[in-house]
């Protein structure tokens, strides 16, 4: 029987033929009618009229396990992770597209622990890697709208998620210290939603859900003495990072004059003394304004000022005479939604500070970060005398704790994204979207565990057996946690012996069982290798796990190499795009088969056959078989002469 297998990287890019009928898998792409039914829930024909002041709105009542507010990368990852762990999720996003600042509305490129290329080898695993790999393979043209579509596809393909776009969460109700329900509105479809849930996850960036529920929060910069942070200002103040508007421009091959609007700022060389213009295909993050104002309530004014600076800078490029090679260039897109960096941060049981990013660890580590402590002057472009940022790279990647992802005083409120529990100084590093995404994956996985065990996030931290299982569940989903390796007692592969058609001395077959799923760079030396490698050749290469006693297998999980030593992100900036491969990554196994040796003896039997793979984490859920051994046979890669595998797990 033929059927699509469950590949974590859903998207129809891999073809799998299985010898066995498979159970429905949560991330298997559902048929269109199933998705249609999901949307019918959100606009039932029999919806009531909303009572009170808005009689023309229709009221829809929804009940779910996990409510995620905000569909930036943190929210998307939280929703997907919770849903893939079996929770029913409602995801509310106030824009028409997912992705937040990474979407085509802002066009900010996603960076993270590898700090562009300053810390090679430390790309995050997990959901963000799944997105990056799909995007690189299917969007070589670097179109941001296709990134939006990729995220939409991921979310609507998840049967456990109800997606409400163009819907804003605006109020919440509580009983004691628990949130019971939230209200959201979609004026495009004239609906009000009353949504009850067990766990609520604030991924709005601005902590809107926390605000509506009286959660403890912070805004502005703490005084140096409060957390003993050398990078903090002497005295506390309300300043934060400003918002920005980006633009893109193209060379049209003929003179393209530009006349600025009357309200454009007059930008001079003095304004740009510390803000260098080296190319103009993509705007400048340092066109930043409003960090010394009320970043939320002054948003309309902030947009105007940012647009007037964008127009002024472009006028300078085109008309000052300093950049004659811009003559044939013209703007082809200007952002209209100020991309926000800083606003309100929720307070958890732990507040992450500068010291935590520079040394130490957390017992409840759930995700990594590693971007520089990258602070900006709150007045942004209005302070041409100050550098637009000062960035200090932490010496190593750092771990974030679960306790920074749930509220201290609202017992079923979690958070992920730029609003997690951090001091201002720590936030200047944790705010980047790779880090927001992995915090989202951790929060969503935790939320699903809380629903399953009927406990609060704090109890998940306190009950150490559950905390350990949760961390292992994250690792199984390819989440990177520093200093944590596969110790999953349920992984049957850990009791197997390994043999292979060939192996290199540096990359022996035994590496697939050593618990590590990445190579570790060593400053000035050779990386510490944790993958198996063998020449793929014309006959391919195989690796086999053999058990002393047969094992009943239901799932085989394989982690391939996707070139973590390189940067991988969607960017409109040519210099940032250097070295990025906008195609399947060459190290990744493209075609392979998975077979097993029946316990009763006889020839190897095929479980799965895959062609065209570009994903790192591939899962094959199978009808149970009694196996004495399993074999993964690599027949082609996406370009590299070696077959490489980091890990094989069996359940
Ligand atoms: C110009 C600029 C440059 C930056 N540089 C980088 C960089 O190079 N790389 C990088 O990774 N990061 C960068 N950052 C930081 C990064 O973009 C943000 O910190 C990040 O987007 C935070 O992710 P998030 O998911 O928490 O929030 P967001 O991306 O802000 O997403 C939150 C989403 O929630 C929605 N929302 C808000 N309120 C509600 C509500 N009440 N109901 C429903 N939905 C709601 C918002 O519309 C938004 O889409 C930059 C930011 C800016 C502005």
Task: Describe the structure using short key phrases.
single chain, 651 residues, FAD/NAD(P)-binding domain, eight-stranded antiparallel beta sheet, five-stranded mixed beta sheet, 21% helix, 25% strand, disordered N terminus, binds flavin-adenine dinucleotide
Summarize, please:
With 651 residues, the chain is an alpha+beta fold.
Care to describe what's here?
This protein has 651 residues and is α+β, with helices and mostly antiparallel strands. The chain folds into 4 domains: 25-109 and 142-213, FAD/NAD(P)-binding domain; 217-232 and 346-476, no CATH class; 243-334, no CATH class; 492-650, Jelly Rolls (Sandwich). Helices cover 21% and strands 25% of the residues. It is built from 13 helices and 28 strands. The protein starts with 14 loop residues before the first strand and ends with a strand. The structure holds flavin-adenine dinucleotide. The site of flavin-adenine dinucleotide has 37 residues, from helix 2, strand 7, strand 12 and helix 10.
Attached small molecules? flavin-adenine dinucleotide
CATH topology tier name of the largest domain = Jelly Rolls
Radius of gyration based on Cα positions: 25 Å
Shape summary: globular
Give the CATH level 1 class of the largest domain: Mainly Beta
Instruction: Please identify which CATH superfamily of the largest domain we are dealing with.
Output: Galactose-binding domain-like
Q: What class, by secondary structure content? A: alpha+beta
Parts with pLDDT < 50 across at least 5 consecutive residues = 1-27
**Major sheet: size, sense and barrel closure?**
8 strands, antiparallel
